[in-house]
Amino acid sequence: MGIHLTALHWVYLAFIVFIMALLVRRRDTTMICVAGIFTLGLIATETLSGSVSGIFNSFIYATKELMGTIMIISIIVAMSRVLIVTGINETMVAPLTRFLRTPALAYWGIGLIMMITSFFFWPSPAVALIGAVLLPVALRVGLPALGAAVAMNLFGHGIALSGDYIIQGAPKLTADAAGLPVSSVMEASVPLVVVMGLVTTVTAYWMMRRDLKKGTFRDGLVTGRSGTGALASADSPDHTPAIVHPAAKRALAILVPILFAIDVIAMFVLHLQGGDATALVGGTAILILLAVTLFAHRNKGLEQMTSYLIDGFVFGFKVFGPVIPIAAFFYLGDAAFTEMFGNVLPQGSQGIVNDLGVALAHEVPLNNVASAITLTVTGAITGLDGSGFSGISLAGSIAHLFATAIGSGAATLTALGQVAAIWVGGGTLIPWALIPAAAICGVSPFELARRNLKPVLIGLAVTTVVAMFLI
Q1: Which regions span the lipid bilayer (predicted)?
Q2: I want to staple 149 with a disulfide (CB 3.0 to 4.6 A). Which of 3, 37, 345, 441 is the partner?
């Protein structure tokens, strides 16, 4: 028996459709998200005070959930600015220019490096490292900042995170829910991840090249940015010019990547992942910021350290400002709803978004074609909360249900739901999940989401068809 859907479910779904329509039309959605939170609160609490308070509390909840990402972006930006002011960044990326000599090489090179790095310690810390080092090179050879963001996003938050073959967080969640060994889900996901990755990245590159030739490519730069992304104002007049001896500059340019390489090794040895991996990268960035600032600015280092940190935090919160209201609404689709408005959902509810996914699964006929389509749609729906991971256990459960009914394809269906959920919610379509790549490259997360939309939808369609033959 399926979950009984209430007015809360249908109102939430209606606002999702409205918000997505506005995003496609390039309109701002802040007011609609606030209206959605207010409406849901009014239905849930039946009091004006409860719904009004829910708006503020949902903003606080979203900010707490996003704080780790805000902090890592702010700190990496602060570190990157001192590296640029001192000229260390220029020295550090100089050897890479011989390999990334064209926009095409920059797109595929950044993407592949991002993918490999993300396999080892997930995309959020990876995008900060890769962006800080390779973005200036990409811009220098003519790849737009938005193109670099697309490459980092699709290869990192798409391919690497949806497979998650090293850390294995995603396949473990889906495999446990489906009652399967992790190895079987990982094996079944390989062809799906390969197909999804190839179709999406090739389509995105082709569309970018086409639009650049036609002159219709939207750069998506955040207002006031010159095209060097989060690092654009690094040489702000607020910072005292720093003169570093060329030999010291070369030594520091070697030392900084070595320190981050040690982080990668530590993640392996200490089995760090997710937030722990991000914390290690963030702590390393702060120490680099401290050491380089004191070395370069000497007796003014104390004041300059604070100035760089302020720059980083101002940038981080400025970028996240428009995102928090949207995240606040979509988080209500999961555990946040009960925290905001109490336990008013039906008995057995797994959250509004997951309830909608279960209801969909109970309304479709059980065969190979319908099962594959349903798992893709269910995974995509559960990814709408922007985490990518919250709904993949549900995808595993539904895959088990369908596989039992049709007699085969449990691992493939589980992997398909995992791929769909993470590609949508893990950071390629939902604007606040896109923040790491967008922030580092200085582009609008909404413009990045629009640039990714067609390639990801085409990729999901092709991957679903492939899965039909593999079940």
Answers
A1: 6-24, 31-60, 66-84, 104-121, 127-143, 150-168, 188-208, 251-271, 277-296, 308-332, 369-389, 401-423, 429-446, 453-470
A2: 441
The single-letter code of the amino acid at 241 is P
pLDDT attached to residue 172 = 80
What are the C-alpha distances in Å from 207 to residues 151, 202, 231, 326, 434? 13, 9, 27, 27, 19
Per-residue confidence (pLDDT) for residue 232, from 0 to 100: 45
If you search the block for the tokens 């995603």, which residue do you land on?
170
Number of neighbouring beta carbons within 10 Å of residue 363: 9
Q: Is the confidence at residue 383, as pLDDT, over 60?
A: yes
Is the per-residue pLDDT at 457 higher than 90? Answer: yes
CB 12 within 8 A of CB 333: yes
- How far is the C-alpha of 166 from the C-alpha of 144, rounded, in Å? 31
Render 101-150 in DSSP notation, one character per residue.
Answer: -SHHHHHHHHHHHHHHHHHHH-HHHHHHHHHHHHHHHHHHTT--HHHHHH
pLDDT tens per residue, range 61-99: 888 887 887 887 788 878 878 887 888 877 877 777 778
**What pLDDT is attached to residue 1?**
46
CA nearest neighbour of 137 among 123, 151, 120:
151
- Asked if 311 and 80 count as a contact pair (C-beta separation under 8 A), the reply is no
Question: What's the chain's length in residues?
Answer: 471
Q: Collapsing DSSP states into helix, strand and coil, what is residue 227?
A: coil
pLDDT at residue 235 in the model: 41
Report the distance separating Cα 281 and Cα 327, nearest Å: 25
Q: Which CA distances in Å does 324 have to 60, 67, 87, 138, 201?
A: 9, 10, 34, 30, 28
327-339 b/e (C-beta count within 10 Å ≥ 16 → b): bbbbbbbbebbee
Q: What is the pLDDT of residue 121?
A: 60
Structure tokens at 119: 């396999």
CA distance 165 to 197: 14
Per-residue CA distances from 120 to 15, 188, 266, 276 (Å): 37, 20, 11, 13
Rounded to whole angstroms, the Cα distance separating 336 from 340 reads 6
Number of H helices, E strands in the chain: 21, 0
Q: Measure Cα distances from 391 to 163, 315, 419 in Å.
A: 16, 31, 11
